[in-house]
Design a protein that fits this description.
The structure holds 2 protein chains of 2 kinds. By secondary structure, chain A is of the alpha+beta class. Chain A has 8 helices and 4 strands. Chain A has a 4-stranded mixed β-sheet with strand order 2-1-3-4, covered by helices on one side. Chain B has 3 domains: 21-229, 3-Layer(aba) Sandwich (Rossmann fold), CATH 3.40.50; 232-325, Ubiquitin-like (UB roll) (Roll); 330-427, de novo design (two linked rop proteins) (Up-down Bundle), CATH 1.20.1440.230. Classes of the chains: A alpha+beta, B alpha/beta.
Chain lengths: 196, 436
Amino acid sequence: MAHLSEENIARATAIIALYPKRRSALIPLCHLAQSQDGYLTEEAMEDIAGLCGVTPAEVRGTASFYDMLKTEPVGRYVVAVCTNIACMLSGAYELLEHAQGHLAVHVGETSADGMFTLEEAECLAGCDMAPCVQVNHRFFGPLGNEGFDQLVADLREGSHDADVPHHGVLSRIERRVGLVTKKARAKSTEDVEVSR
Amino acid sequence: MITDAPAIVTRRFPNKRAHTLKGYLASDGYVGLRKALSMSPEAVRDEVNKASLLGRGGAGFPAGRKWSMLRPAETTYLVINGDESEPATFKDHLLIERDPHQVIEGTVIAAYAIGARQAFIYCRGEFALGLERLTQAVNEAYRHGALGESIFGSKFSLDLVVHPGAGAYICGEETALLESLEGKRGFPRIKPPYFPAAIGLYGEPTAVNNIETVSNLPFIVERGGEAFAALGQGSSTGMRVFALSGRVERPGHYEIEMSKTTFRDLIYAESLGGGIRGGRALKAFIPGGVSAPWFREGELDLGLDQDAVGKAGSMLGSGSVVVFDDATCAVRCAWRITRFFHRESCGQCTPCREGAGWLEKILRRIEEGNGRESDLDLLMDACDNIAPGLSWPPQQTTICVLGPSIPSSIASGIRMFKDEFLVHIKDGGCPFEEHR
C-alpha cells in the first residue's frame, strides 16, 4: 500500500511522463511528497524510489543534498531569514536575533506549538527588499522587528492562508497541457531507463 | 552616462498583469516568435550573432557561439538556467515572476534556432510564486499555440517543462544543474568535456542559457540583431539588468545601457541608486556578485562593461552591485561571503570543501577579536591553495569555479583594508559600532 495518496500517485505519474527519463522526476516528486506531509517521510521516499526506478537510499542520497527537502518534520511555517551580504548590510542579523527571541527558538528549531521553524537562509534573491524573509518560500520584506512580529501574528491568525500554504506546497498551479503524447513516448522508453 | 535607451526585458514590469497571456499579448507578446518561425533557424542564429548577445548568467559567454558549439546529433536539448543564487543577484527572479511569457517566448526562439524539440526551465525552488506563474504561463502558451505540436501552424514543435530546483547554489553551475535535472545530487561534472554542448543532459548535446539571455531574444528577432548591437559599446552590447543592493538609498533593479553607464551613475544618480544611504561615504563595492573581487572609488568611473571590468581585475559577473559604506566592516563582509561558500560547497573537492571552512573560522576569530598576527598570511596561504597565484581570472584546483571564487572577497579585503584587519587583531575586536 502506497504512502502517497491515490491522487498524488496520479500526479506523480503525470510528472514522470514529462521527462525523457523518469529519474529526472525525483526532485519534483520529493516536492510533491512534501506538499502531502509537510516533509519527506521515509515511506514517501520508498514510494518515490519505486516510481523513479531507483533505491530508497538513492532518493535520500539525492534529497539530503538540497536545503528545501526536509527529512525531519518541520513547523507549519518555515520562516527563513536571509543573512547574506545584502540583507546583512540592512540589519538581517539583528532581525534574526529578534526572531529567535520572539518565536522562543534557536535557528533550526521548531516552536513548541509546531507552528514555526526558524531558519537562517542564504541569499534568496530578494535583495531589493532587504532584510527579506521567506515563509514557506513566499517573500516578505523589508522587515524590521515590528514588521516581523506583525507577520507572525498574521500567520497565526490565518490571514495569510490564501497566499502562504503549509510547508511543502510549492506551486499550486499544475501543468494541464501537452501531456498525452508525452505519456505515450515516456512509456515506450521506460524499459530502457530501468536497466540503469 | 545615463542614456535614454528604453528598457527591453523589463519594459512590461510597470504592467502588473504582464504575467498573464492577455497582458503579454497586449504588449507585442509572441510577435518575435512568429517572426522567428517565418525565418530559417540559420537566419535566427545570424541575428543573435549580429547582436553579439553575451550570456547574462555570470560567465558572459557569447550566446551565439555557445550554440555554434553544439555537437550535431539526433536529439538536442535546451535548458534554461533560472537557478539564480549568486548572492545579491535578483534579476532572473523578477523576470520569471513579472514576465514569464517573455521567458517562454525566448526559450522557444532559442529552441527553434538550435533545433531542440525538448526544453526545460530549471527554476530555483525558492521562487514559489515564480514557479506558479511560469507553470500558468506554460499552460496558457500551449493553449495559445506557442508551445506543443506545430507552433503557430509551423512545422516546429517543442515541449517545455518547468523543473523546480530544491535549494542549492551550486546548481547554477551548468553541469551541476544538468545532474540535478537528471534527479541526482548537484555535483558539477569533471571537465573535459568543458561544455554541455558536447555532452550534456542524458549525454546529449545541450545548450544551457540564462533567463535574462533568452528574455532578450524576442527583441533581437523582432528588431534585428543590429538594433540590439547598436546599444552599448564594444563587446558589451544591449541593455542589461543590474541588481543594486547594500548601503544605497534606492536598492533595486535597473535595466540600463551596457558600457556607457558607469558604476558612479548606477550608485549615485537620482534616477538609479540615489547615493549612499544616509549621505555617508563609499567604502568599496562589489561589481558583479560575491564571487567578484571588490572595487573602490578609483573604479567608480568604469563603464558597466564586461571587458573593462575584466581588465580592471574583477568581473561584471551576474550584474549585481553591492555597496559598502564607511560604517561597513570589511572583515565581517569577507567572513559572511566566505561562510556562504563554505555552506554551499558541494564537497567534491578538498581545497574548496576544507579550505572554505578553515577560512571562515579564521575570519570569524579575527572579527570576534581572537585573531593572531599570523592570520593574514594564513588566510592568503589557504586562498593560494584554492586558487594558485591568486591571479585574475583565477587558476583552479577544483572541478568548478565555486572554489576559486572563495578568495575574491578575502584577498580584496586584505589588499584594500589591511589596517582594518590588523586593528581587529591588535584591539581584540571589531572597531565598528554597528558590527554589521
